[in-house]
Design brief:
0% helix
Length: 121
């Protein structure tokens, strides 16, 4: 099986920075897209940023210029550097990985349990 574990959340003042990490482990053949989503209270889960195995990045408009996603393919790990944080960035941040378990070409979606990010004003 595959486990996805996030870390790095916490409480920070507006304008501050946090770095989230997400490590995938288990029976992994390779990982296609891996990324971050977030869900604020009373809102739907939304894409924050994701990155392909080839390094192509996508960001939500609300975080462009402030957040940077990166990945270490050798470690099956993705990072999210969050700068200039705003109170509206407060949410539970979830990691999602599209994982191939073998060479069949099929990918399965795995989610972490989430890490809380709270930005105070």
């Amino acid at each position: 099986q595959v486990q996805v574990v996030e870390s790095g959340g916490g409480l920070v003042q507006a304008g501050g920075s946090l770095r989230l990490s997400c490590a995938a482990s288990g029976s992994i053949f390779n990982i296609n897209v891996i990324g971050w989503y977030r869900q604020a209270p009373g809102k739907q889960r939304e894409l924050v940023a994701r990155i392909t195995s080839g390094g192509r990045e996508n960001y939500a408009d609300s975080v462009k210029g402030r957040f940077t996603i990166s990945r270490d393919n050798a470690k099956n790990t993705v990072y999210l550097q969050m700068n200039s944080l705003k109170p509206e960035d407060t949410a539970v941040y979830y990691c999602n990985a599209e994982v191939a378990l073998d060479s069949s070409g099929r990918y399965y979606s795995y989610w972490g349990q989430g890490t809380q990010v709270t930005v105070s004003s």
